[in-house]
Structures are given as structure tokens and as C-alpha cells.
Design goal:
The protein is mainly beta and 429 residues long. It has helices spanning 2-21, 307-312, 352-355, 381-387, 401-404; strands spanning 51-57, 61-63, 68-77, 82-85, 90-93, 100-103, 108-112, 119-123, 135-139, 151-152, 163-164, 174-182, 197-200, 207-214, 221-224, 229-236, 243-246, 250-254, 257-260, 273-275, 292-296, 299-302, 320-322, 327-331, 334-336, 342-344, 358-361, 364-366, 372-374, 395-397, 405-407, 415-418. The strands form three sheets. It has a 28-stranded parallel beta sheet that branches. It comes from Flavobacterium fluvii.
Length: 429
């Protein structure tokens, strides 16, 4: 009996330790990154293209695993059609034509891969690089904060087919699940870039889960308006923002990951999270909802081997930026290796009303040069005092990434879950 009790106690200790690992940052009894992700996408050789997709898809269409498809130019799914993609299907974006796949308003995509057989969008070049092709654009009829509630995207796309926005928060643009988007983000006229995945006016019946965007020349994920839920997303080594929210989006993002490189950024800086309500004030109706992001169990990490040196040399900037008239409710998340962790727009006046719009609770700030600042202001005592209140239960540390995360240095199957035993808690910022 005594031996049985000891065994039960040991099992309980193991279970409790596993649960403890999952309290902050990405969660799961096992790493949900296994099997379907690829952190070395340039090492894979695919079969030769045997099918070409071009122009408009205006009737229900299915893509099959047995084929390898090439997107040429801007390919539009129109006329309320549904594009269905089998698990394991490979779709290549054409480098020469800056190919993209655009799901127009009213149409839908059903791209349901499997953990053991993901759907892959990648470049058709032999040596693949960020920005080789355009990306995926999904346009819905959920609200934005723009005047008239409608707008259009402009990535060298057909203006008549690029509109988004409406009044249907529950609109359904389909499913993306177990999907990889690699080497997207081609540059377009005017100096802008496509994004790996752009969701514009997308409603809350749309399912976006287990999607990995790697080596994007633009943002990995950009969300314009709409009301969408995001789960288990990965942004890996984006040249621009990992997750950008704008134009009144009401978004919930959970259990997701951003891995930044010190050596990849654009001229204006790149963040893991960039939370905005507009680019220009004259574009939006201030009687409508501003952007509001609910973020739970995110892990935002700079993968530098020497964070301190890269910060001192100016290679590392802020991890999160929150603009004026935008709000975030941020809990149980890890921000590791930035300068600082969070930066607020200089237009945000620090008072109780504004700070209640920026909730930071049960956060883990690690290896950052400062935790939260207002832009162009080096004095952050008020902010540190506010968010350092014990009621918020935020934690601060200076531990190296390789002891903070379970298997940070593994370049094939990394595990970015927090390793509680490796944390050295500090009250310093």
C-alpha cells in the first residue's frame, strides 16, 4: 500500500509540474508544434508542378494531394464559390508574377490539413527566399471602423474584386487548419509588401487554427477589421510585423507564437504585435469600435544567441507596440529578449482611463531592456509602478532563452513552452 501511495504521489508531482510549465506562454501537455511545422523550409524538395491555377475560380473547386499546383498572378476565388484543398496538397506561388490567392467577399476556402499531413503554400524557386511570391488574402463582410464600413486592399489587385467589410460579424470565409505559408510577402508598387496571410473584414465563424507563416517579406499575419478568433498560430522570422491588427478589428488570439530575428526588420521597425486603430485619422469613424485585441498565452521571443549584445548594437527594438485609440487585454504571455517589451504610442496620455484599456496581467517579461515605455520618454516609473502592482501578478526575469524555454536551441523541432525550473525571478526591469 505504501509503495502504491508513493507511485500515485510521484504521478501527481509529474502532472503538476507539466501543468506548471503551461501556465504562461504557449500551452499544451505536448508541444503542438510537432509534426506539421517546418523550421527549415528551404531544405524540402517538392515534386514538379503539374497543374496551373490562374485568373478567376468562379465555381466550387477542389485541389488534390496527388497534384502540385502553381499559382500564377493574382488568382481570385469569386462568385460565392468555395475552394477546397485536400490535406497534404502543395501549392507554389510563382516568383515572376508575384502570385497570390485571393478569397473575395462571399467566397470561401476550406483548407483543412492534418497534423501529420499539412497543406503547404510555398515558393516555386529552387532557392526559396522571403518575398518570393504574394500570399493569401481573405476578404469578408464583417465590420471595420472605416467610413462607410467598407474598404478595399491594394496589392496590385483588381479593385472590383478587392473589397471587404460590411455588417456581418458572424460571416464565414471558411477554414485554414494545419497550413504552412512559406516565403510570401512580395514587394508591390509603392514600396509596400504582401503579407503571408491577410484577413480583412473576416467574421467570427471563420476558423484560423494551426497556421504557420515563415520567412514572410511583409507581415506574417495582418488583420484589418472584422471579428476573428486565432488559435495556435506561428510567425517565424518575418521581415515585418508578426501580428498586425488595424481598422477596428475585434480579435482574440490564443496559444500562439512569434519568433523574431535581430537581423530581419524593415525601415520603420518590426514588432511581434502591432496594435493600431488606423493609419490616418481621417480614414475612420470614431463613433465605431476601435481595435481591441484579447491575447492569451502568447510567446513572443527574439531568437538571438546574444540578446544583450544585439540590444546594445541597436538590432533589437520593442516586442509590442500599442497605438493611440487601440486597446489590448494581455494575459499569461511571455515576452523575451526585446528593447523594451512593450512600447506605447507617444500620443497616449498616461492616466487611469488609458491604462485600463491596456491590461497586462500574469505576464512574464524576460531578458528585456525595460518592460513598458511611452515612445520618446525614457522615464517609465509611473508605468512600472502601475503594472508592477502585485494585483497584476506580472513576473520579471533575466534568464537566457536557452534555459527559459524547454528546447530553445533545437533548430529542427524546437519547443518554446516555458521551462519553469529555469526561471530566475527578478524585481529588476
Amino acid at each position: 500500500m505504501k509503495k502504491s501511495i508513493q507511485i500515485i504521489a510521484l504521478v501527481l508531482l509529474v502532472v503538476c509540474d507539466i501543468n506548471a510549465q503551461q501556465e504562461k506562454g504557449i500551452t499544451g501537455f505536448n508541444s503542438w508544434l510537432n509534426n506539421w511545422t517546418d523550421f527549415k523550409p528551404n531544405k524540402i524538395d517538392y515534386d514538379e508542378v503539374n497543374q496551373i491555377l490562374t485568373g478567376n475560380i468562379n465555381a466550387d473547386t477542389k485541389l488534390y494531394k496527388k497534384n502540385v499546383y502553381l499559382l500564377q498572378g493574382n488568382v481570385y476565388v469569386t462568385n460565392n464559390a468555395t475552394l477546397t484543398i485536400e490535406p497534404g496538397t502543395v501549392i507554389m506561388g510563382d516568383y515572376e508574377s508575384k502570385a497570390s490567392l485571393i478569397i473575395t467577399k462571399g467566397a470561401s476556402i476550406i483548407a483543412e490539413g492534418l497534423e501529420t499531413d499539412p497543406i503547404v503554400f510555398t515558393s516555386n524557386k529552387t532557392v526559396r527566399k522571403s518575398g518570393d511570391w504574394g500570399g493569401i488574402i481573405i476578404l469578408g463582410d464583417a465590420p471595420t471602423n472605416k467610413f462607410g464600413n467598407v474598404s478595399s486592399v491594394n496589392f496590385d489587385t483588381d479593385a472590383l474584386l478587392s473589397g471587404y467589410g460590411g455588417n456581418n460579424t458572424a460571416s464565414n470565409s471558411g477554414v485554414l487548419r494545419f497550413v504552412r505559408i512559406e516565403f510570401a510577402g512580395a514587394k508591390v508598387k509603392g514600396g509596400d509588401n504582401f503579407n503571408a496571410l491577410l484577413l480583412a473584414g473576416v467574421g467570427n465563424k471563420t476558423i484560423i487554427e494551426n497556421v504557420m507563416a515563415s520567412h514572410s517579406g511583409g507581415d506574417s499575419f495582418e488583420i484589418l477589421g472584422g471579428e476573428v478568433n486565432l488559435l495556435k498560430l506561428i510567425s517565424y522570422k518575418s521581415s515585418n510585423d508578426d501580428y498586425k491588427f488595424n481598422y477596428g478589428t475585434q480579435c482574440r488570439i490564443e496559444n500562439s507564437l512569434a519568433i523574431r530575428s535581430s537581423y530581419l526588420t524593415n525601415s520603420t521597425g518590426s514588432r511581434c504585435l502591432n496594435v493600431l486603430s488606423y493609419n490616418k485619422k481621417e480614414e475612420v469613424d470614431f463613433t465605431k469600435k476601435h481595435t481591441f485585441v484579447t491575447a492569451r498565452n502568447l510567446t513572443l521571443v527574439n531568437n538571438s544567441e546574444n540578446v544583450k549584445a544585439d540590444i546594445e548594437s541597436g538590432l533589437i527594438k520593442e516586442g509590442v507596440f500599442i497605438a493611440d485609440n487601440a486597446s489590448i487585454d494581455f494575459k499569461k504571455s511571455v515576452i523575451s529578449g526585446f528593447n523594451p517589451a512593450i512600447l506605447l504610442d507617444k500620443a497616449i496620455y498616461i492616466n487611469d482611463e488609458n491604462l485600463k484599456k491596456i491590461k497586462l496581467e500574469q505576464m512574464y517579461f524576460n531578458l528585456c531592456k525595460g518592460n513598458i515605455f511611452v515612445a520618446d520618454n525614457s522615464n517609465n516609473e509611473d508605468l512600472e509602478s502601475w503594472y508592477g502592482n502585485a494585483a497584476f501578478a506580472n513576473v520579471y526575469s533575466k534568464a537566457e532563452n536557452n534555459v527559459t524555454f524547454i528546447d530553445f536551441m533545437n533548430d529542427k523541432r524546437p519547443d518554446f513552452r516555458l521551462r519553469i525550473g529555469g526561471i530566475t525571478v527578478s524585481s529588476e526591469d
